[in-house]
Specification:
about 40% helix; five-stranded parallel β-sheet; alpha/beta; Alpha/beta knot; binds adenine; two-stranded antiparallel sheet; 9 helices
Length: about 240
């Protein structure tokens, strides 16, 4: 899968994405990260990409043409017209099911805004998905793009070396993951729950499930409610 990130700070995403699990997947040729500097498409004297907003108001806006040309360059490289995600607090809140949907694409383009945003006209022409990573405002789209890429990439076959670990995640079946323990058996006077030492797989599975349910009920009542509703609708059908 190919991630194309259109940004004014390409080194930020290159450094952020090329380590650890994603770095390994890039070396293995499973993923590519193509950081495109929007400034390279500003064909004016000072490579300027921003200007004042019509109608007045504080701050500068990224201009349409360099963004458009950067998108065009990626379309050419990809050989088709990939989805273009614009990172903005005005978008749909990113979720695990959106990550699953995006992970099926061959190419994805992330458009990272800065300053006061991007000229609306180019957004209308190129953006297919407006996505937010939460109800707070960041200084640019690079961190949200990296968050999304991490969540999407780990779902791409071969990125995690154990297939189970992709499935075995906090949102499996809509429940949070149960607590886990490693050695030593007693740490700071706290013992590992006895059932986990029993070797009785069925009991362990049941204990973990109950822990998941209880943890979801306590920490994420919103998810718990959804899980209950989904469980009931399965029973009815
Ligand atoms: N750009 C600035 N804040 C953002 C957010 N919360 N999500 C996505 N993009 C953003």
């Amino acid at each position: 899968m190919n991630f194309h990130i259109l940004t004014l700070f390409p080194e930020m995403v290159e450094h952020g994405l090329c380590t650890s699990i994603l770095g390994r997947a890039i070396s293995a040729g499973i993923l590519t990260v193509n950081a495109v500097n929007i400034r390279d498409f500003a064909f004016n004297k000072h490579n300027k990409v921003d200007d004042y907003t019509y109608g007045g108001g504080a701050g500068m806006l990224m201009q349409a043409e360099p963004v458009y040309l950067a998108v065009e360059s990626v379309r050419e490289k990809a050989g088709h017209i990939p989805r273009v995600i614009y990172l903005t607090p005005q978008g749909t809140t990113f979720s695990q099911s959106m990550a699953e949907d995006f992970s099926k694409e061959e190419d994805l383009v992330f458009l990272c805004g800065h300053y006061e945003g991007i000229d609306e006209r180019v957004l209308e022409e190129v953006v297919t998905d407006y996505v937010s990573i939460g109800d707070y405002v960041l200084t640019g789209g690079e961190l949200p793009a990296m968050v999304m890429i991490d969540a999407i990439a780990r779902l791409v076959p071969g990125v995690l070396n154990n297939k189970d670990s992709a499935e075995f995640e906090s949102f499996k079946d809509g429940l949070l993951e149960y607590p886990q323990y490693s050695r030593p058996e007693v740490w700071h006077g706290k013992e590992v729950p006895k059932v986990l030492l029993s070797g009785h797989h069925k009991n362990i599975e049941e204990w973990r499930f109950q822990q998941s349910v209880e943890r979801t009920r306590m920490r994420r009542p919103d998810l718990y409610q959804k899980w209950l509703e989904q469980k009931d609708s399965c029973k009815e059908s």
